[in-house]
Amino acid sequence: MFERIRSGAPLDGLTAEQQALFRLAELVAEVAHNAAGPPPYFNHHAGWRIGPLARLAAAGDPGTHARVEAVLGS
Q1: Is the bond preceding residue 40 a cis peptide, omega within 30 degrees?
Q2: Spatial CA neighbour of 4 closest among 12, 29, 47, 31
């Protein structure tokens, strides 16, 4: 699953929002791993991709989308 998520290939049976949520979780794991200490490090720019993916993952739920927008700003 991890390799399928990282490849960016469509995940069969999942909506675009669900796929974005899996990718978001993977990015958060990369950032946490990088912050934890010793190499090997993941992409140094992983954290910058979290905001846009959070917006996409929350697109189907107005309440969640509003909270994400409040945190990230417009």
Answers
A1: yes
A2: 12
